[in-house]
Amino acid sequence: MFLLCGLGNKSFKYFNTRHNAGYFAIDRFSQRYAIPLDKKICNCIAGIKDNIVIAKPNTYMNLSGGPVAGLVKTFNIKNEELIIIHDDLDIELGRLKIKWDGNDGGHKGVRSIIESLETKNFYRLKIGIGRDPTMAPEEYVLSSFRKDEEVLLKDVLDSASEALYMFIHEGKEKAMSIYNRR
Question: Is 86 a catalytic residue?
Fold first, then answer.
């Protein structure tokens, strides 16, 4: 069983913001692989098909840990079967990185998950959103994508879906070797 969990903020106010890149990736995976997000489980919006659970915590980013821990317990997910999808300021827009383990890197949603699971041993699919040196990081992550960035965002979400599919069906190492160098 695999759990793919995309992070974001539940409020409509934050719908199109950079911080919701994880939500967008789960939405794209749901559409692409016909896994409807039609269930409410552990304060998440979720979909289940075969050996895959996809989910979006129905919370604010900084409170993602509780719902993720609930899903891990409910579906008896092993650490190596969990992949958290989230935005990353330190990766340029249009790039992805799959990583095992590590600290939260200042990402409060990831920090909440580490605290709730009491481990940092899980996979992350980081979606690059880049930085704007003229804005504070807290302001930037809550800003909307510009029109000129939306095509690049669409492409990276397609790549994220492909990377997640490969991660599950062809192996973690293969997905990391291909998608970490693009």
Answer: no
